[in-house]
Specification:
alpha/beta, five-stranded parallel sheet, 14 helices, 33% helix, 22% strand, globular
Amino acid sequence: MSDMSEHIIVVGAGAAGLMAARELARAGKRVTILEARERCGGRIHPLPAAEFGYPADGGAEFVHGEAPVTRALLREAKLSLQEIEGTQWSFDGTKLSRESRHDPHEAELHAVLGQLKDDLAVADFLRRHFAGPEYGRLRTFIERMVEGYDAADPERASILALREEWMDGGHHTQARIVGGYGALIDFLAAECRGRGAAIHFGCVVSAIDEKDGAVVVHCTNGDVHACDRVIVTVPLPLLRDIALPAAARAKAAVACDIGFGSVIKILLRFSRPWWREVKQDLADMTFLLSDQAIPVWWTRYPEQHPVLTGWFGGPRTAVLAHLDSRGLIDAGLESLAVVFGLPRENIARDLVAAEATNWVHDRFARGAYSWATPATRAAQTILARADGPVLFSGEAIYRGRDMGTVEAALASGLETAGMILRG
């Protein structure tokens, strides 16, 4: 079989799958994308502009840091970024105040982190080095950051991965794509189709067989596809649902050494930005933190859309696992009522549109994104290998600092395609 007619199947039309498919189709390969959903994007989930007044994101929303692959793609797609600016506020249970990012023990934390040689879980690190009562606030801040930002479990998350994220320029700029991530996915899907790649929706892959050098992919709808290689880009929890050939199954087994978090995201559109009426200084508020049921909120600032987005990540989201979309929206309204000291009915009265997703309940995601444990880097090295006809790709397999991001998914897809093309 000549190289040009090599047929590659990509499982999943999320960011990693589309990026790998585009690269391979560009190089003249025959590419088929099998997607379980009825849309592209995966954990990027565009919501109708008519509902929120702009193309809102029900899933991934921010572009973090340098994100070179994302930014290059945006230039190509002629899409622009809007950097996040404004002030961060917090509610301590009694009053709202501008968030002071500075902790008196910050220098000490950086010194201890800088000297750290061996990896350990964040919670163990805090117990070992910052156990005293004077470090209470620091411990809470770090645990909340790990849970809320990384959607991770402090008892399992790697302190060295966190050090890389914080001290090597992590948490720097954040931006949003004008038009949302959906615009980027539309561009990638159009590129794939334009270069001859086929995208099939409603195809849930159940098994991949290898026989006499040929690979056969089976879908639950009865479809069977023969190919030369397969790139599996599904979220980590879904790997267990696909029957794999022995060698690929052994590789996939190490995925349990990679953490996978859960996130609840709530979008509330109001008829007016009532929070500014409560407190005039909130005109440039971006983030709002509290210890309420939905602990993180953000605005669209500097845009003026009267939308508040609620966010709750990490293992504690289990306490709300029983709630449906309506229940989550109620929990969000309740949290805002406490923070702003208003009757819940007053806030609910101004509600124009609402959308809430517990990503754990999404059958083709079963959570939000990955995070590193002390065993993750070794697991990723095994999963990323291009040995055999079944390859793995996606944000969880990306070995850089930006694991768990769309940048990680795009970069991983690019890398996997590159390994195939280099042969």
